[in-house]
Design goal:
Blueprint lengths: L2 H7 L3 H28 L2 H8 L6 H11 L5 E4 L6 E2 L15 H16 L5 H9 L2 H14 L2 E3 L2 E5 L1 H26 L3
Antiparallel strand pairs: 1-2, 1-4, 3-4
Helix pairs in contact: 2-4, 2-5, 2-7, 5-6, 5-8, 6-8, 7-8
Keywords: Membrane, Transmembrane, Transmembrane helix
Protein name: Putative membrane protein
Length: about 190
């Protein structure tokens, strides 16, 4: 068996997937803690309540969470809306929200690489990337869970960007960084 085959056999896929799931949930929860009150009082949410609809707080916090991954919210059949980002700018949420997913993913990659006893940067990066399946799964599910529909109009995180950026790029990049940190600091 080659060295690369043995490396792949040692990838903690189950532990990495669980870490990815937990990281995604923690990221959403931190976003909710930071932005939830403002979202609840937002004009869009107030409008939904005014017309007799249920408040869409958890969905709209989801939009903010995806925005923290640079994924816009897309509006279908809504006049004057196309794509929208809710972080930063004059009316946006704190820029702190942009660091939540990377920091949590670095921490998850580091933890998984430490768990797998990665002894160098390559092994650490491979272990860190194992957070992708769990993070990707919830990133795909969240796109549909965070859709708000009212008649023919709807709004949700952009599907392609949500899968690509939030589900793949972020966990690959930052999970690997955490894994590399674990590998190069292994004793």
């Amino acid at each position: 068996m080659s060295q690369s085959d043995s490396r792949l056999q040692n990838v903690p896929l189950v532990q990495g997937s669980v870490a990815g799931l937990l990281t995604w949930v923690l990221g959403y929860l931190f976003t909710y803690l930071i932005a939830g009150d403002e979202v609840q009082e937002s004009e869009i949410n107030q409008f939904l309540e005014f017309i007799g609809e249920e408040p869409a707080t958890y969905e709209m916090v989801g939009w903010v969470f995806y925005n923290a991954h640079f994924v816009d919210t897309t509006f279908q059949n809504v006049p004057f809306f196309g794509s929208e980002a809710f972080i930063g700018g004059e009316d946006g949420f704190t820029m702190l929200l942009y660091v939540i997913p990377p920091l949590l993913l670095i921490g998850a990659g580091l933890a998984v690489a430490r768990y797998s006893a990665a002894q160098n940067a390559n092994d650490g990066a491979i272990a860190g990337i194992s957070v992708v399946p769990g993070y990707l799964l919830l990133s795909i599910a969240g796109i549909f869970l965070f859709e708000v529909t009212l008649g023919d109009a709807s709004a949700a995180p952009d599907l392609v960007a949500g899968v690509f950026l939030a589900g793949l790029v972020f966990p690959v990049l930052f999970g690997a960084v955490g894994g590399v940190l674990a590998g190069v600091t292994a004793e």
